[in-house]
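Subject: Putative Xylosidase

B.,
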Amino acid sequence: MIPGFHPDPSVCRVGDDYYLACSSFEYFPGVPLFHSRDLVHWTQIGNVLDRPEQLRLPASMPSSGGIYAPTLRHHDGRFWLIVTNCSEGGGNLIVTATDPAGPWSDPVWAPGVPGIDPDLVWDEDGTCWCTVAGVSQVRLDPSTGQTYGTPHKLWSGAPGAKAPEAPHLYRIGDYWYLLIAEGGTERGHGVSIARSRTPGGPFEPCPANPVLTHRGTDHPVQNTGHADLVQGPDGSWWMVLLGVRPGGGTPGWHVLGRETFLAPVAWVDDWPVVGEVALDLPELPWPLSPGPVEEHRDDFELAELRPYWISVRDRPAEHCTTKERPGWLTLRARGGSMDEPDVVFTGRRQRHLSCRARTLVDAAEGSGGLAVRLDERHHYEIEVSGTRVRVVARVGSLRTVVAAQSVPAGPVVLAVTITEPPSPHGPCTGPDIVSLGIEQPDGTFTELASLDGRYLSTEVAGGFTGRVIGMYAAEGTVHFDWFDHEPLDG
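Prediction pasted inline below.
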């Protein structure tokens, strides 16, 4: 799996290599891209939309707007990615690359492609078809963005099921298969499939639809859907899909966002049968190929930030740089707080249910600190200004300072620890506890506040994203010597 806020996975295989892209919504850079040799261990090698010319997300765009549901494909020696920018002035765009690590091209816009969740597929004579949520299809020239004819309806999934979306079309054996998500991306989410002799239909639905759903079950992974199919190294078939891991009592709160999972696929009577969506590594009939060990600490010694760092809507160099003070990240404030849509914030997706994040802050020239963000209206932070440290909680329309303490002048280590709630658990128990405080020179953690994590969850805030933990500047210029984000749950 790829833990943390990595939804809407799209995967393609090129030789012995696998590449996978995810949605990124209001964050810049957009569309994280991963590489694997075994379908299990994934390493982020870049972001597809990493330049302002490719991705403009205005401050007027609400959180959970922006970049929705890419499709990644390899055709004729080139990688193709089509995705929707749901902000004002956006639409469906196509970028290409010969090296998936980048650089990717400037976007080609496809104004004739309606809606979201666009898919690309080429038939035997080289014609490219684009299928979108709904589910409808139009012929497309991906090199120019030109469409031909009007979109026509293909199939809308189970009668009465809401939100037929996330279409992917494949030629497998004697059939064209149309894989979709339906039921909405909440607890009713599922995956269904239909087949046809031609890419334009008519499509015959699988009698066993949905071929995957966890609705109404006690499986630890819920909201399963938005899937893509790929062959393993041995020719077996597999499915990547999104799911969530709810915690706490009723109704259950998921805080990491929608994550990417892997499930085996068998073919019976020319229909896919999906196996277990496992939390642990599945047993694979080929050797595992672990990538580099994930580094928990970043000392900001590189000229550019590593690809896992994301910011809210943009990242101008004059506001975020590692070049001003060598070995430090410098943030220069723009918005006045984490409530603002143009706040200068740089963070990492929370990837573990229990974790600790720490950073050494020099706020002699301003104020800022360490934040756990879901959106502008749902975040907790610990902020230093001069010799004063305070914890701020924003939940919906309520904003309050919940704790404050004096500290000696000079750099200070701020820390956030996220852990399971204490026992006994009841039906109203939240998913986790977010503790914010300072770390003393001897490593002792001094807690200033301990807050219920349910208020930084999708079930409370709404939207499509997950928690991001990182650094921000609220006033003036703030320097950060290092950032450490480590799991506490193994």
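The first helix runs from residue 458 to 461.

T.
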